[in-house]
Structure formats: structure tokens, C-alpha cells
Design a protein that fits this description.
single chain; 323 residues; eleven-stranded mixed sheet; four-stranded parallel sheet; 17% strand; binds magnesium ion
């Protein structure tokens, strides 16, 4: 299975591109998290992403493209979208926009909606892979559905290494941001909406738009369909987990933030960017320790400004009742 792991260089990227064109899956690094990629124009290939992840089919996927011009081949991008793209692409922002009438992307990436989530990644390996494949790449985070997102190639091997449709895992080392992209919906008939907090803080986006981002709930979209990724239990470790803990119990492993006594510290100096980059990998390490010892997990309070909004969102999902 480890033979699926490739060190990215011209030859291996070429092989990965060929596999994608043949309808296989390739896991690849982005600056946010590792993605499980497929040719977004190939229905069968996209379907095998859902199979490999065990993902409910109503949850649509992000399509990764090389640049704004490519994005415009697939979707209608208005003035607001252009503004956001100019400010944040390439990078950790995903835009949910209306599919063009002649959009050649698989309908399955939109899971039945008339919109598509588009992102231009900054990571050099992600960009090379899009170029080598010569196709837009549908790619959700490369983890089994509902589990912690992968921020290292080894996490992908652990979660999806045995998936038969997965041809290769490109090892690009740890992801710099470590949190999924921020997802912003740009409906033609309503305000820009923060569908998922993520790697780019709300305030940065609002500064570019010049208006506050709306809340999906405020749009009357509480059934989880407008951004079905906002399901409650998600990003879950196995061990039970308590949040905002200042006095841990004796049987708890503590994921700290700032100057606190703890088992592992997201950021001893209280830097939210550093904490975001460590979040998923440290939760994995503590979860494995908890499994071995029967311990539980506790997390220190993390402030909710800036990237703290996305960090707290992921922590709340990790702590939500499991189904
Ligand atoms: O950083 C990331 O965004 C990573 C890397 C690999 O790019 N990808 C990722 O994809 O996290 P995924 O599939 O795990 O999350 C996609 C999010 C989900 O919350 C999904 O519901 C939402 O985007 N989404 C996708 N298409 C949508 C659409 N048409 N309308 C509303 N939400 C959509
Ligand atoms: Mg995910």
C-alpha cells in the first residue's frame, strides 16, 4: 500500500496525471489539507470519491482549477466573485457560484444543486497536478467521511490507503494552513454568505467585500443542504472530547492553547495561525494515545476571533454527539 506514496517530481506528477485522466483517484497536498482528487468531468471517477470516503452523496465537492479564467469556464462569476478571487486566489478560499449552462463538470460534484464550489489552490504540487491532468480536479479532504481531515500524507495512507480506486498519494509534507478552505456562497439573489469558516478569516473577506458576510441560518437555510458539509458531527476523533476546559480531569489528555499545562499545545504563544496548522495532527496524536490508555480528551479555550472562528467550529463538530 505504501507503494501508492509518491515523492512529487516531474515523472511522478506525469504518472499521477495519467491516472487521473484514466478515472483513478490521486491524493495530493494543498496549503489547507490533503485532497482526494478525481477528474471533475468524469462521473464515474467522481462517484468513486464518494465510495472511497463513504460520503453521503448529497454532500457536494469542491472543484480545483488553475486560475480565475478556468473558473469562468465552469461558472458565472459576478463582480463580487471577481473581487474575492483577485484578493484570495490562489489560496484558501472556495466560492460557491452558479454553474454555467454549458458547464462540462459532472453533475455529481454539485450533488444535484445548480451551483458549484470552485477553488484555485496555491500549493505548487496541486497546481502542477491540475496542469498535468489537464482537467479540473474534484477533491474533498482525503479522509473517510466524518473523520479528521489529513494534513500529512501519512494520514491519507492511514485513512484511505486501502481504497482500490486510489492510485497514488503525492507526499508534499505537512500542510501549511492545516484547516480547510473558507467556503463563501455568492447567490445571484442574496448577500454573500459564509457557508463554512476556514483558512481565511471572516474579517479578511468582509474587508474586501466592504459588507458583512451573511450567516446561512439567517438565509433560512437550516436544513444543511445549502452547504451540506455543515453537518453536526464531523471531523471526529474516536475518544470523547470536552471543550473550553480550564480544569481538566485526571483521566483527560489536554490539548492546550497558550500558556497552560497540557499534553500537547496548539500554540504556546497563543498564535491562532500556528494553532490552525497543528489542530488536526495533534487531535490525531491525542486520539491514538487515548485509544491506547482509555483516556478522554479535553481542549483549552481558544479565542473565537480571526482563525479562531474556524478552529472552534471544527472543535464543536469533533465534540458533537455521534450518530
Ligand atoms: O481546503 C479544502 O477546502 C479542502 C481541500 C482539499 O481543497 N477540501 C474540502 O472539501 O474540504 P470538502 O468536500 O471536504 O468540503 C467541501 C465543502 C463542504 O462543506 C460542502 O458541503 C461545501 O464545500 N460545498 C461544496 N459544494 C457546494 C455547493 N455547490 N453548495 C454549497 N456548499 C458546497
Ligand atoms: Mg472534509
Amino acid at each position: 500500500m505504501t507503494s501508492k506514496l509518491l515523492t512529487p517530481h516531474a515523472d511522478t506528477l506525469e504518472r499521477a496525471g495519467i491516472a487521473l485522466r484514466a478515472g483513478k483517484l490521486v491524493a495530493f497536498p494543498t496549503e489547507t489539507v490533503y485532497g482526494l482528487g478525481a477528474d471533475a468531468t468524469n462521473d464515474r471517477a467522481v462517484a468513486s470519491i464518494f465510495e472511497a470516503k463513504g460520503r453521503p452523496t448529497f454532500n457536494p465537492l469542491i472543484v480545483h482549477v488553475a486560475n480565475l479564467d478556468d473558473a469562468k469556464r465552469y461558472a458565472e462569476i459576478d463582480a463580487q466573485g471577481e473581487k474575492l478571487a483577485a484578493a484570495f486566489w490562489p489560496g484558501g478560499l472556495t466560492l460557491v457560484v452558479r454553474r454555467r449552462a454549458d458547464c462540462p463538470l459532472s453533475l455529481l460534484v454539485s450533488a444535484g444543486l445548480d451551483t458549484v464550489a470552485l477553488r484555485v489552490p496555491h500549493h505548487e504540487i496541486a497546481q502542477s497536478l491540475i496542469a498535468r491532468a489537464g482537467r479540473p480536479l474534484a477533491a474533498p479532504s482525503a479522509n473517510p467521511s466524518g473523520r479528521l481531515s489529513p494534513t500529512e500524507a501519512a494520514h491519507v495512507v492511514e485513512g484511505l490507503g486501502d481504497a482500490s480506486a486510489l492510485a497514488y498519494i503525492l507526499d508534499g509534507g505537512p500542510c501549511a494552513l492545516g484547516l480547510e478552505s473558507t467556503v463563501v456562497g455568492l447567490p445571484a439573489d442574496g448577500p454573500a454568505t459564509l457557508l463554512r469558516p476556514g483558512a481565511i478569516a471572516r474579517a479578511e473577506i468582509e474587508a474586501v467585500l466592504g459588507v458583512p458576510l451573511a450567516d446561512p441560518a439567517a438565509q433560512g437555510e437550516t436544513d444543511g443542504r445549502s452547504s451540506p458539509g455543515m453537518l453536526t458531527s464531523h471531523y471526529a476523533p474516536d475518544a470523547p472530547i470536552r471543550l473550553n476546559v480550564t480544569s481538566p480531569h485526571a483521566d483527560e489528555l489536554v490539548l492546550g492553547f497558550g500558556d497552560v499545562a497540557c499534553t500537547l499545545n496548539l500554540s504556546p504563544s497563543g498564535d491562532l495561525g500556528e494553532a490552525a496548522a497543528h489542530l488536526f495532527s495533534m487531535l490525531r496524536i491525542l486520539d491514538a494515545q487515548a485509544k491506547a490508555t482509555g483516556a478522554r480528551l479535553a481542549v483549552s479555550p481558544v479565542p473565537s476571533h480571526g482563525l479562531g472562528e474556524a478552529i472552534n467550529d471544527r472543535l464543536m463538530r469533533a465534540a458533537a454527539p455521534r450518530n
